[in-house]
Amino acid sequence: MRKTCCDNKEEMHRGTWSKQEDQKLIDYITQHGEGCWRNLPKAAGLLRCGKSCRLRWMNYLRPNLKRGNFSEDEDDLIIRLHALLGNRWSLIAGRLPGRTDSEVKNYWNSHLRRKLIKMGIDPNNHLISHYLHRKSLEFWTENSRRETDGSLLSDTGSSCANDQQPIRSLPDLNSLPSIHP
DNA sequence: AACCGGTACAACCGCTTGTTA
DNA sequence: CTAACAAGCGGTTGTACCGGT
Known about the structure:
Strand content: under 5%
Structural class: mainly alpha
Number of strands: 2
CATH architecture of the domain at 72-146: Orthogonal Bundle
Radius of gyration: 23 Å
Strand order of the largest sheet: 1-2
Helix content: 40-55%
CATH superfamily of the domain at 72-146: Homeodomain-like
Oligomer: single chain
Shape: elongated
C-alpha cells in the first residue's frame, strides 16, 4: 500500500486552523515559497498533512484573495460560466480574480442555486422546466396576491401548458467576459 | 432561556491528472 | 511503457451561527 501524506492520522491536527497554525504557515511560505506540500508541514513545524496546508493556503491565507460578498457582476458571470462549463469550479474561479474554486463552489451551492430555483430555472441545466416554471409563477402569483391583498390572479402558468420544449433562460452565452481587478 | 431547523462556510475525502524516474 | 508520487479538483461532511418558536 502506498503511503500518502495523510496516512499517520493519529499524529495529525484536524479541524479548524488556529491563529498560530495560520501564522506558522504564512511565515514559512513567505520565507521559502510554495515548495513541496508533502514536506512543508514538517519543515514549518505544523502537525497537519500537506493537503490540509495547501488547502488552507490556497483558499484562505494566500495574498490578494478578495473574500466577502459577491457583487451582482460576479453572480451573473458565475451563472453564465456554470451554464457553459458545468461544475468546473476551478475554471470558473479562474475568471474571477481573487476568488477560489472552493469559494465559488460554496457560493453556488448556498446562494446561486437557490436564486435560480426561485427564478424558476433548473440550476443543473439552466433551463426553465415546466414544473419549475409553474412553481415560480405560483411563487410570484402568491406574492403579488399578498401584496394586492386578495386580488385573484387566475390560471397560473397555463399559458405554457402545451409547450413541451424547455425554455432557454440564458440566451447570450457567446461572450464570456471575465472580471478584471 | 432553551430548543430546533436552516444556512453558510471551512475542512476533509477520494478520485483524477500531470510529472518524473 | 509503467509505476510511484505530488498536486489539483469536485463532492461531501461537520459545525458554528442565526432567526423563529
